[in-house]
Amino acid sequence: MFKKFCKSSSGQALLEFALVLPLFVLLTFGVIEVSKIGYSYVTLNNAVRSGARVASVGGLDEEITNTIATSSTYLDQTLLNITIIPEEMGRRSGSQVKVVASYPVYLSTPIISQVLPNPVTVNSSLAMRIE
User: Fold this and answer.
1) Are the beta carbons of 46 and 74 closer than 8 angstroms?
2) d(CA 37, CA 76)
3) What is the pTM of this model?
4) What is the C-alpha separation between 39 and 81, in angstroms, rounded?
5) Calculated CA dihedral for residues 107, 112, 118, 124, nearest 10 degrees
6) Domains, the chain, ranges and CATH?
7) Which residues pair with 97 in a beta bridge?
8) Where does residue 23 rank: exposed (0-12), middle (13-18), buried (19+ CB within 10 A)?
9) Are the C-beta atoms of residues 124 and 41 closer than 8 Å to each other?
10) CA–CA separation, 92 vs 88, rounded Å?
11) Distance of alpha carbon 20 from its chain centroid, rounded?
12) What is the 3-state secondary structure (H, E, C) of the chain?
């Protein structure tokens, strides 16, 4: 009777599935979270590039900020932190203007948010010569 029980494999697939499913779900949600961070980084980088271009042709701080905001429509604008160096009055043709932006990406998966810092802050900066 014991040999008959050991040769039976009727629950083996279910047991393997139960062991692998949590790892597969964790891996899937990890890819989703990393994709959110990567998307935010690329969007912020493109927005800063657009804002630095406006700054290099003599744009005002409000125009630069509006350009960055319209270039990053899928990011929460209330969390977006933008710094422009030097201030508007200190910019001269031939000098450099630097646009710096940061954005916190909040993770929503419980286990991953305990492993990674929550929020993950995405930073981008670009310096261009004023024309």
Assistant:
1) no
2) 14
3) 0.80
4) 17
5) -70
6) 11-129 (3.30.1300)
7) 128
8) exposed
9) yes
10) 9
11) 29
12) CHHHHHHCCCCHHHHHHHHHHHHHHHHHHHHHHHHHHHHHHHHHHHHHHHHHHHHHCCCCHHHHHHHHHHHCCCCCCCCCEEEEECCHHHCCCCCEEEEEEEEEECCCCHHHHHHCCCCEEEEEEEEEECC
Q: Which two tokens stand for residue 61?
A: 């701080």
The structure tokens listed for 84 are 């422009």
**Non-local CB neighbours of 95 within 8 Å, separated by 6+ positions:** 86, 129, 130
Helix 61-71 and helix 12-56, axial crossing angle in degrees, nearest 10: 150
- One digit per residue, the tens of pLDDT, for the chain of length 131 reads 555 555 666 678 888 888 999 999 989 998 999 999 999 999 999 999 999 999 888 888 899 999 999 998 889 889 999 999 888 777 788 888 999 999 999 988 888 878 888 899 999 999 988 88
Locus of tokens 């031939």: 94
